[in-house]
Task: inverse folding
């Protein structure tokens, strides 16, 4: 029977919610990793029981967790239970927690400073993994977007991590700067038709693309206009909040920028604004319908200082025309006294025949729609603040 | 045997109880005790000190015999009471919200 598994990361642990294809009754397990910030968890498209989790803490740093049984049991992949805890050379294992920036000459000695809030240069310092993106082809290959912004890859199931240093090495690093959430690489999109092509996005630097498997990268920010930077049309410096793509059309991208909803029909070479009649075009989350590549969803947020929905009403906006014309979806969502935010990685869709749409709020609710957004119901209402939501469609 | 008391989250990660006991060769120091701890519990690597620089993570502190050892050079010999297992080395998280 068809079903879905919703993977929810919160400020104080992870939760897994499962349902059959009707998506009316839910089983909730968790908290997993109780007390830790779970920035992201995501399953492998090749092996849905393979889950990767970013578990992080301001006190204790970064932990990578992995499950090979759909979230029933977990392990730190660098230290599987029962294996020797030392290498033959006598060095302790535990490499899955190790993210070290590449400064080697072989990769061009990537820049080691970026712009700080006050405009001075500041060294790159690893803080946490924001996003994990498992390969479309190999369950042991997974990418990690980290703060301070860089992309890492593991080819051994998360045991060890190596930076794709060409991103920081391409030259604009000193102009990147942290947004309010830190200088994070939060979006990684793998092109399903071209294994060598990937997109990433950084707050606040912008979007970048590689066409050679991550060796070299170029900024793809033409058409973005950001009033909050000295040159509104600069090559880099834009606070891109999230980017999404429909797998049937890898060259078409949709972006929620700090302000502005944008689209590109040429793999990011040029962007045009499609905010249209949205009540506000500030926001974080954006996603695409699983079967209709021109149907997109955003959750407008009042402003860059008022990080909550406008008018106390929680409304998802849907465009069936790839932007510009939007309709408010509010059936089943609170329409008074609601002041939550929906963070950038906290919206996802399933691929059942009637597309399911899911999102989590900073108020701890996780909402699901089994009819492409026409109506909504809460799966849970009282979790810690939700940082991320991913969905697996199980067949 | 050297006794080490860990914060709750690290006990969960390492699957241990309130404190752990470790063999440490020679005169124990914070550095050598952490080496022994990470060798035995590699899942703790990076959680107490940076994996490359070996610098203490900023929100953690070390105490022994009611003294703050957080800012001592990590190769300073620990007190005799820690060396002979009478007193534990405490790893304590800052009370900084959360």
Result:
């Amino acid at each position: 029977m068809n079903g879905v598994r919703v993977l929810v990361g919160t400020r104080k642990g992870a939760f897994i919610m499962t349902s059959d294809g009707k998506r009316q009754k839910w089983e909730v397990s968790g908290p997993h990793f109780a007390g830790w910030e779970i920035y992201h968890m995501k399953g492998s498209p090749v092996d849905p029981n393979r889950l990767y989790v970013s578990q992080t803490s301001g006190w204790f740093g970064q932990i990578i967790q992995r499950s090979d049984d759909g979230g029933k049991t977990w392990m730190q992949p660098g230290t599987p239970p029962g294996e020797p805890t030392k290498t033959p050379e006598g060095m302790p294992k535990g490499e899955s927690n190790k993210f070290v920036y590449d400064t080697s000459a072989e990769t061009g000695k990537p820049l080691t400073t970026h712009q700080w809030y006050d405009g001075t240069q500041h060294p790159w310092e690893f803080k946490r993994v924001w996003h994990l993106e498992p390969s479309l082809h190999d369950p042991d290959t997974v990418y990690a977007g980290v703060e301070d912004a860089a992309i890492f890859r593991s080819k051994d199931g998360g045991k060890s991590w190596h930076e794709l240093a060409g991103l920081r090495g391409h030259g604009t690093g000193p102009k990147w700067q942290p947004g309010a959430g830190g200088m994070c690489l939060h979006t990684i999109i793998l092109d399903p038709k071209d294994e060598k092509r990937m997109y990433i996005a950084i707050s606040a630097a912008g979007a970048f693309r590689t066409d050679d498997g991550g060796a070299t990268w170029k900024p793809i920010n033409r058409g973005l206009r950001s009033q909050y930077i000295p040159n509104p049309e600069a090559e880099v410096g834009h606070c891109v909040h999230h980017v999404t793509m429909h797998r049937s059309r890898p060259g078409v991208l949709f972006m929620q920028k700090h302000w502005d909803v944008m689209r590109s029909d040429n793999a990011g070479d040029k962007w045009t604004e499609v905010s249209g009649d949205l009540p506000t075009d500030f926001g974080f989350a954006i996603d695409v319908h699983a079967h209709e590549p021109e149907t997109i969803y955003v959750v407008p947020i009042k402003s860059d200082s008022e990080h909550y929905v406008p008018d106390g009403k929680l409304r998802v906006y849907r465009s069936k025309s790839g932007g510009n014309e939007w309709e408010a979806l509010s059936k089943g969502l609170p329409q008074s006294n609601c002041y939550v935010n929906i963070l950038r990685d906290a919206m996802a869709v399933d691929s059942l025949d009637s597309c399911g749409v899911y999102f989590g709020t900073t108020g701890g609710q996780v909402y699901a729609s089994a009819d492409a957004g026409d109506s909504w119901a809460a799966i849970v209402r009282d979790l810690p603040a939700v940082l991320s939501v991913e969905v697996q469609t199980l067949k | 045997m050297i006794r080490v008391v860990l914060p709750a989250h690290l006990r969960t990660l390492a699957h241990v109880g309130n404190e752990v006991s470790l063999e440490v060769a020679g005169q124990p120091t914070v550095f050598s005790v952490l080496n022994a701890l990470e060798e035995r519990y590699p899942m703790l690597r990076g959680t107490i000190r940076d994996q490359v620089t070996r610098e203490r993570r900023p929100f953690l502190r070390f105490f022994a015999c009611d003294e703050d050892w957080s800012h001592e050079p990590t190769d300073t010999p620990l007190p005799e009471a820690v060396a002979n297992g009478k007193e534990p080395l405490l790893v304590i998280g800052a009370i900084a919200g959360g």
Summary: Chain B has three helices and five strands. Chain B has a mean pLDDT of 93. Chain B touches chain A through 25 residues (CB under 8 Å). The CA atoms of residues 65 and 74 of chain B lie 16 Å apart.
